[in-house]
Amino acid sequence: KKVLPLKGKKALITAGPTREPIDPVRYLSNHSSGKQGFAIAAALAELGAEVTLISGPVHLPCPIGVNRIDIETAEEMMGAVQDALPSDVFISVAAVADWRPAECASLKVKKDKQTDGPPPLMLIENPDILKTVSHMEQGRPELVIGFAAETNDVVENARAKRLRKECDWIVANDVSGDVMGGDHNVMILVTADTETEWPRLDKQAAARKLAAKISEALTGH
Ligand code: C5P
Predict the structure, then answer these.
(1) Which of 28, 155, 44 is nearest to 93 (CA)?
(2) 90 pLDDT above the threshold of 80
(3) 67 an active-site residue?
(4) How much distance in Å is there from the Cα of 63 to the middle of ligand 1?
(5) Whose CA is closest to 122, among 108, 106, 104, 102?
(6) What is the DSSP string of 182-205?
(7) Each residue of 21-33: pLDDT tens digit?
(8) In this structure, are strands 201-202 and 99-101 parallel, antiparallel, or unpaired?
(9) Using an 8 Å Cβ cutoff, are 125 and 112 in contact?
(10) Which alpha helices (DSSP H) does the chain contain, by range?
């Protein structure tokens, strides 16, 4: 008999990059593949959770049993998260663009019209989705988990980020190697009073480790 410890629990996950338009044909983005977030969504669904996955543009199939919502910009991701709440656990895996162009030109910016050299690109700050959910006064998920991509002082930076974002857990990723876009990950789970380092695992196995911890925290098993 299959044990489904997370049956009746809701999980909300963000994954992938966001895409911030400059004009109808250009955008700012990053190299996030979405692999780790999709693997976490799959692992939680396997444990019986009702999973909503809010994803930026990625080249991945939707995991079985997962409700996927596709968005492009950080603002759309923020709106989709708010629409999908409440949830028992929120896991912010997405590589949200910190900034977006202050304005999106309604027509393609033409090179031959730029008489004063390249056009200036003014940026403004995007909403911090993880921080917004962490700070919710009503209906805050019981467990709010952020990710931290670090190249140095991994645990120290993760501890500081956990306090700054006011989330419950931070999963620190050592991205000094081939993690970004790759198939493996080294994760360190930082909670208020514990630090757990897992060995180098493929992203599915790493996701199952995290899903087991989430299950333990939400249900006691
Ligand atoms: O501050 P930093 O980007 O390093 O924090 C990373 C964590 O914050 C990740 O969990 C990421 O999903 C989340 N984040 C967010 N919204 C942003 C920026 C980061 O939810 N605008």
Answers:
(1) 44
(2) yes
(3) no
(4) 23
(5) 102
(6) SSEE-EEEE-SS-EEEPPSEEHHH
(7) 999 999 999 999 9
(8) unpaired
(9) no
(10) 35-46, 74-84, 129-134, 154-165, 203-219
Report yes or no: 44 and 6 within 8 Å, Cβ to Cβ.
yes
Instruction: Please give the distance, rounded to the nearest whole angstrom, from the Cα atom of residue 94 to the centre of ligand 1.
Output: 7
Catalytic residue of the set 30, 67, 157, 173: 30
Give SS3 for 163. Answer: helix
What letter represents residue 84's amino acid? A
> Residue 20 C-alpha to ligand 1 middle, in angstroms?
15
Q: Cα torsion at 217, 130, 39, 184 (round to 10°)?
A: -100
Average pLDDT of the chain is: 95
| Per-residue pLDDT tens digits for 130-161 | 999 999 999 999 999 999 988 899 999 999 99
> What atom in ligand 1 is closest to the CA of residue 145?
10
Q: What percent of the chain has pLDDT over 70?
A: 100
What pLDDT is recorded for position 15? 98
Pocket lined around ligand 1, Cβ cut-off 6 Å:
74, 92, 94, 96, 98, 126, 128-130, 146-148
User: Widest CA span of the chain, in angstroms?
Assistant: 71
- The pLDDT assigned to 1 comes to 65
